Amino acid sequence: MKTLQFILKKLTGALITIVAIAIANFAIFRIAPGDPIRMMFKDPRVSTEQLQAMRVKFGLDKSIGGQFIDYVKQLLHGNLGFSFWQKRPVADVIGDRIGQTLILVVTALVIATTLGIILGAISGWRNGSKTDRTILSLSLVLYSIPTFAMGILLLLVFGFILLLFPLGGITTPASGFTGFMYLKDVLWHMVLPAFSIVLWYVGEYILLTRSSMVEVMDQDYIVTARSKGLRESVILRKHALRNALLPVVTLSGVNFAFAIAGVIEAETVFSWPGIGRLTYDAVMKRDYPLLQGIFLLFAVSVVVANFIVDLIYTRIDPRIKTGAAHE
Amino acid sequence: MEIKKSLFSRILITVLVLVFVSAAAFAGGQKEGSATQTSKAVDARFNVGFTTDQALSTLIPDESWQYMEMGCIFWPLVYDQLWIMGPAPDYKPIPMLAESWETKDNQTWTFHLRKNAKFHDGTPVTAEDVAFTLKYLPASDPAWEYEDTDCDDIQVIDDHTIQFTLTAKHGGDYPPVFWTPILPKHIWEPYKDDMHSYDNAGAVGSGPFKLKEFKADQYIWLERNEDYWGNKPGAQTVVLKTYGSAEARNLALKKGEIDMIGYNGIDPLSLSSFKDTQNIEVKIDPGITIDWLSFNLHKENAITDINVRKAIMYGIDIDRIISIAYLGYAEPADSFMYKELPDHNPDLPQFTYNIEKAKAILAEAGYRDTDADGTLNDPETGENLVFELLGPSDWTQEVKMITLIKEQMSDIGISIKPKIVDLDTFYEFWYAPEEDGFDISIGNEEPGPHADWIWEFARSWDNGGEGWNCAYYNNAQFDEYLDDMAEQSDRGARKADLFKMQEILADDLPYGFLLRWKSINPVRTDRFTGYTSTMGGVSTWINPWSYFNVKPAE
Fold it and tell me: The complex's ipTM?
């Protein structure tokens, strides 16, 4: 019963957040300078009548209140609107890109999290040793190199000098690959962009897991476990790491959501046609409906990721569900 | 020690397994990639590289076919035009869908179409298709509206003869209806009133290449049209690809992933990395782009004073700009007209760098540094001579130029505030001088050899010039010469008009012409030969010839 209550409470919170963000979305992009209809035309000879016709077509001739009502009505019907720039439904534009970003982000984050936890755990477990110092220095270096610079470096070394991977894109252009060959081609193209994201995030995970491990190592239950004569590997896995992972789980959820929005640099350097690059273009074109759609997606993914993290927390740390931690 | 061993051995095993699996999985992919990259052009696949911001997002024939780099390369390969401008050095009109044309009065034009042209779906191209295109395409988007396609009447005489009555007479060396893709009526008819409502996913044209596959923002895959009425291209396949940055695209050329750069070549800074590179020849051609300063004559400040504009022009050390920002790969410009063309007026006043002259002009006009802050003051308002200089961040060379101009203007007592914005915002400001978003702006265009339209930049604002006129310039006399030039069929009279127009602009200085940068194009010679150079290089909106002419290397 408590679990159900907990889930319902979290769900309600999530829904309220999404509604609030949907409303804020509408306002934010209209504050930005620049006339989106004017920006649809590079040709300066566009007439006032043509501009007005476009305004009417996209409902921008109405007052802000009228536009807001249209926006809400559309959203309630599950309609994200029509992209000014791409001249097709926003859902289609996002739909074409989201899968490509998800496959990149999920792969990269799974690898980054796994590697980060392993290296962070080793580093924390052997706090102060040569291994610890090496891993710590490495993670600080990786964490401080911008994705853009790392991307160019990876392209130069692995794409150009070693000729191991392609210089960009999601598939070999005009290859005609289908089925397994296509999948293999996509994976081949994904190695460098995913690697650049992994390198960026792995440092963060190492640092967090390490500090969490160092903290846990001083706890009484570790001393108890040792005095019981348990094997070191068992203490590390079952006692230390499990507790040290709590903040890492939180970070994973938040990172996943932010990574969808934050892979702009990786997608740009590697010309990976995903949501990140789309966001950049949509901002440049002042494509309100597309921006509203993309940011709603970001908001929903942050909220959903947090919701899932909350649920996972109840599995890892039952005190959360029961509220025992505060009792 | 036990824990260390077991953990490390597990990690080691995991990493080894991962490396092995990845190597096995990617081995095939790598082989396919390198096969297309390093071998001879077995399937005659001609690969051309663009950057992501030059790519097409849709195949709708909107202004992206005019203003996006990939757009204006794509459509002349897939669609035929009535006639096409030939390559350098003559740039003569060459019959395409129209075998011949004639006019008696420069207003009514008759075009005779060839009888063996077919669209890619097998349907014959007829005069109905041409009439349909001329009626609906310019109406669908202002980017297709030009004086030479603006018709009062279009008559289909028979399947292969069409007659246009233009709204205004059309003179000069070229027939009307320049640079217009002929669309198939049977496909476009249902969308004629809103041509943006059809995604044109199949892109059926009648040109020398057929669309095989289009991936938005990624690539366009074209196959040679084996049923083409004219000479078939040497390349069996053309792939227009995109890369995330100019650096990645340049690496792709060196690696052999692409054979040519799709637009504007490389910047001078990258040139040294291509010199003496095996299998690459660097072609350096005269530029097509002319850079200038637009002075905003709508502003209520000293920029409207011709003395200030003249002083600015004398204060600019163009040779230094060319040497620093363009590493010498540019030449000074003094008109919208290229210096080598017969219609260029050789007697235009030259604003050769002369700092003393610039200072003297300002002093004579009453500009003094009355508050001793290093910047001159306006004799009427007492305000400092401070001007905003607008430019887009995307034009890297021009941004360097702005920095240098700022430095040079301080030497003559004028303070420049650079205003660098993204490209779309730049255009919004630049084309709206009446909104006072700038005092001075960098501007550029690619007029090409057949460029009557470029003079519309100077048509009086109050006389229909609103649009391209980005200086808020007004001069009724200029408009008279412009209208006469557009209609003139007499070569001498037309030249006289153009000379006079250039003189007026040099005297009034709504635009201060700066330079014309050279086109630097490295091309792969191990896979293809026959690259065709024109002004602007081997691949521009006026030059689809490389795509038609390249042949696999022996």
Answer: 0.81
